[in-house]
Specification:
By secondary structure, this protein is of the alpha+beta class. It has one domain (7-134): HIT-like (HIT family, subunit A), CATH 3.30.428. It has three helices and five strands, in the order H-E-E-E-H-E-E-H. A five-stranded antiparallel β-sheet has the order 1-2-3-5-4. Strand 1 and strand 2 (22-27) form a beta hairpin. The chain is globular and about 40 Å long. The termini are far apart. InterPro entries: HIT-like, HIT-like_sf, HIT_Hint. Pfam families: HIT. This is Diadenosine tetraphosphate (Ap4A) HIT family hydrolase.
Length: 136
Amino acid sequence: MGFEVHPQLKADCHVMGRFASSQVLLHRNSQIPWYIVVPEANVRELHELRGSPRQDLDDLLNRLACFIKTHHQCEHTNVAAIGNRVPQLHIHVIGRWEGDPCWPDVIWGNLPEGPVRSDAVLEPLKVELGRYLRRE
């Protein structure tokens, strides 16, 4: 059986593409740039990913954090691997700024329902994200 993104992540997110053997997702709620990286590995915890796959993931997370800060003009990026509800390894990379809808608290359980990103917004964002993440 091939790699599958957990059903909860599929329900909550848009698929932005595949980079460095990971799926990059974007949360549907458009109030905060909340990306989720899902490595295509059969592990549940970050420390279980070793060697080249871990290095590739770390590089991807760094590039994604830089993209979020520049493209979404965020003051901070929060990076977290919290697998309490979804057992599949996934890493949240979230753009934050003072005065965002959850500031200064975490977004989990605090993000009010908001508009879903439209295809008109998503398609050019996917292209720009792809160009940025594939740069050498």
